[in-house]
Amino acid sequence: xxxxxxxxxxxxxxxxxxxxxxxxxxxxxxxxxxxxxxxxxxxxxxxxxxxxxxxxxxxxxxxxxxxxxxxxxxxxxxxxxxxxx
Length: 85
Prior knowledge:
Blueprint: E1 4-8, H1 20-26, H2 46-52, E2 78-82
Antiparallel strand pairs: 1-2
């Protein structure tokens, strides 16, 4: 496994495309349209997530503001950033 995380950079004709300029100026947030490409589009049932949250999960892990990523590059183009923590 690499020390990078990947977030899809989708083609312009894709319904969840976000421009390079938008990502470079504002970053990738939970509300970024390309995040909808991942699993359920960020519509997590927060009350269930919090109920099942392991007791040793760090407080900084906020599922309401999480983004979708892959641990391997599955797309022809992706934004990538280092794993830290």
